Amino acid sequence: MxxxxxxxxxxxxxxxxxxxxxVGLVRVRDGEVVxxxxxxxxxxxxxxxxNEWNTKIHGLYAEDVARAATWEDQIDRLCAFAGGxxxxxxxxxxxxxxxxxxxxVTGVEVPPYRSLCSLAVARKTxxxxxxxxxxxxxxxxxxDFPHHDALADARACAQIIIDAARRAAVxxxxxxxxxxxxxxxxxxxxxxxxxxx
Length: 197
Prior knowledge:
Helices cover about 45% and strands about 15% of the residues.
């Protein structure tokens, strides 16, 4: 099987995992980036306050997303891009919980994605003093990028998986997980149950 997956990264407006305010998506086919996209999201009502700390991290304000489409209006676009891929994220529990919670609070069915965490992959692949995304991406050959820009972060995450698969001499994400002793997570509803437990 080829190395096919979609890397994903969310930024949130506040501490609520349902407060997605931007997303970046990078499609990888046979170990190569073939498409990428990203957009702003108007967070769901009740989860739409922009916390000063979050804004300091990603630079987004409420006015930046005021005219953006809502989660309900964008989830089909996200799923159309990702298709049936395994979703890969750096600290995947965070990003997959954002996806799950935003669906739940808006009454949207949670899509049944499996996921692989590039943070866990980086820890098994590189010897680093920190496994934060910029450091891990640099080890994978993806240098300077605007960290906390959702699309740039998704691209960095994709590069970690591509490089790790090359180093492990495997050709797909399931084989990469097996080679490194990392279990791909079950679909999102199960991920959320584990995160809450």
